[in-house]
Design brief:
It contains 6 helices and 2 strands; from the N terminus they run H-H-H-H-H-E-H-E. The chain is mainly α. It starts with 13 loop residues before the first helix and ends in a 7-residue tail after the last strand. The C terminus is likely disordered.
Amino acid sequence: MSMFTSVVLAPADPILGLNEQFNADVRTDKVNLAVGVYYDTNGKLPLLECVKAAEAQMMSPPTARGYQPIDGIAAYNKAVQGLVFGETSEAVTSGRVATVQALGGTGALKIGADFLKTIAPQATVLVSDPTWDNHRCCMPVATTPPATICLPSSGRR
């Protein structure tokens, strides 16, 4: 008997279910934006020229890979702050903006929610509906309970 026998199958993801609806839709003028991935007219995931160029630049010359600083790459953090707030904004120049890096979007949400729980334990995290199930699952640890905001369905197909 497997030790995984008692593991309950997670419910189907409602957002990934949008892909099934998309595939079943016979219209030819549709665009699938359900998972934030864009496909070309042949239904293939393209490798954008800008991504090719960035990868080539990163690999020239090849360098050794080690651990990054715990708060991320300082030059990247500074560039993000400038992009989001403006390089000359008072919040940035006075040092009131903190930036951290995370692996993927869900990781960033988890870090933010845990940080919020640390500084404001009574805060409520608002989670959209629909959302990815993994977003909802990582929030109860940070806030109890996460609140759900239902998005209007009018105009959605």
